[in-house]
Amino acid sequence: MAESRDRVSGGVWGGAPRKSHRTELLPLLAKNRFCDTIMYMVESHPRVSVVVPVYCHTSDHAQYLREALESVAGQSFRDFEVIIVDDVSPKDIAPIIDSVNNLPDVTILRNVLNVGHAQSRNAGVRAARGEFVAFLDHDDIWMPGKLARQIEIMDANPDAAMVFCDMITFGEHAGRLNIDQSIIPARPGFYWFVAHGNFTISASAVLIKRQIMLDIGLFDDRYSTCDDFDAWLKALMLAPVVHLPEKLAKYRLHGSNVNYTVDRLNDNILLTALIWRYWRVAPIADKIRLLPRLARKYVGRAYFTIRRFRTFEN
Length: 314
Known about the structure:
This protein is of the alpha/beta class.
């Protein structure tokens, strides 16, 4: 498959004037045949890499992206870079990025094919130079202290793989998702997440060690949904996960992200295999508690064989 390499003149993207940097185009992501890279490097490595997967195809999406990037630019913590992965957006995202003031250094990766959010996030993680990765979906928003508070938590918990904060749901379909975040423990375990399901954590609420993402093999793009849930469970198998009970992220529910198709049979098979993988090495108490959950997965598999696909709204 032929790949074309685009170049952006004028150095690093972003609306605010910046001091000039020595820049160099580097060929990254050789393992990802779907992605072209536009990479502008500075000499120092940031503490955090912010990865923003983007598929911008309506004027609403353009506005969502602008608001998301403005929330990044407004962070009180400043030692970070921004990696935007454009998943073949029909709309030109360059003017949107240029319109946002006070963004730090920005890397733009352009996928050659539309490959979805899992592979787009993976491309961003591979290109990241920070110790930590923070994901932000292009339609979500961060509060100004989000990165600062999560860095504080990770510094205070050096054994942890990641930290996630509470979320505020908003948008035209905000009522579809009701989560009682007050019941989340300070350090939820594997069984707790399996018992409470896929909607506990939004990717936009997570700050995770980049090495952990590499160690778990990144996001599994075989899922139709819950590839992020799979990733958090795999991270838990390596190190603790910390809950920060502060609402520092806003999760937007709108027409485009409540009407996608989910392959329930496929996702059931993949997630059940992961639970069995944990079960083999789990403490006895978790083994006992997980057995009914595994039984339910197999009952669900029989049902999903008959009614395999559904839309999120159903």
